[in-house]
Amino acid sequence: MNAVILCGGLSTRLGEITKNIPKILLEIGDKTILDWQLTKLKQIGIKEVVLAAGHLAHILEKEIGFERLGIEIIYAIEDKRLGTGGAIKHGLEYVLHPEDPTFILNGDILYTIDFADMVSKLKSDSDGIILASHAPDIASYGTLVYDENLHLKEFKEKEGKHIPGYQNGGLYLFNPSAKKYFPQEDQFSIEYDVFPNMKDLYVYQSDKPWVDVGLPERLDWAKEHWREFI
């Protein structure tokens, strides 16, 4: 099994906080965001992780090197802005086992779900699974519409409704077949240009704590409540 962590964004929403440091190297409690994610991946036997980097990639490579927590680190560095989908497509070119499923993680999210349980739900003849994480207010998140069999029917991107629901948790487990939906061009969005076209994608529904630390207030919350992610 492979893993790609998306960590090439400009992090403009965090302002001065990430002016000179990649967001994934911010410390939450006793670990960097990267170390929180690597720990989860190591628990399921991942031995190599591709960092899909761009902005401040030189700092990331200097600080992390090519091994972390016993995991080999492989760099897929963008030479131009690729978008969420393009970054995944580019990162997948560097995985060592392209015939196996691949976890895709966003580098600004802390997860508490059981990755092994998510793996156990992957259907080998499907395109993959997307995390549906519960949020009390989904106004600023993309939401998922799926049936009783957890088969994804529709991806709704940020409708602005202040209601509880299950949003795109920014964690995907793709089978190799998912790549057939990627456009030919280098730059595209996974949310707008890929998900609407995927025919056999399932949902992993979770009510466990989840936080996107891409905004200052969410970063502050994570630093205060980090023990919930142990």
Number of domains: 1
Biggest sheet strand order reads 5-6-4-1-7-12-9-13
Cα distance, first to last residue?
Answer: 23 Å
Alpha carbon gyration radius: 16 Å
* pLDDT averaged residue by residue: 90
Tell me the helix content: 10-25%
Order of helices and strands: EEEHEHEEHEEHEEEEHEEH
The DSSP helix count reads 6
Give the CATH class: Alpha Beta
CATH superfamily: Spore Coat Polysaccharide Biosynthesis Protein SpsA, Chain A
Unreliable spans: none
Q: Give the strand tally.
A: 14
CATH topology tier name:
Spore Coat Polysaccharide Biosynthesis Protein SpsA, Chain A
Main sheet specs: 8 strands, mixed
Oligomer: single chain
Strand percentage: 25-35%
Structural class: alpha/beta
CATH architectural label: Alpha-Beta Complex
Shape: globular
Describe this structure in words.
The chain is of the alpha/beta class. It has a single domain, classed as Spore Coat Polysaccharide Biosynthesis Protein SpsA, Chain A, CATH 3.90.550.10. It contains six helices and 14 strands. It has helices at 33-42, 57-64, 83-92, 115-120, 190-193, 216-224, and strands at 2-7, 27-28, 31-32, 48-53, 67-68, 71-77, 102-106, 109-111, 128-135, 143-146, 152-156, 165-174, 201-206, 210-212. The strands form four sheets. An eight-stranded mixed sheet has the order 5-6-4-1-7-12-9-13, sandwiched between helices. Strands 2-3 form a two-stranded antiparallel sheet. Strand 10 (143-146) and strand 11 (152-156) form a beta hairpin. The mean pLDDT is 90.
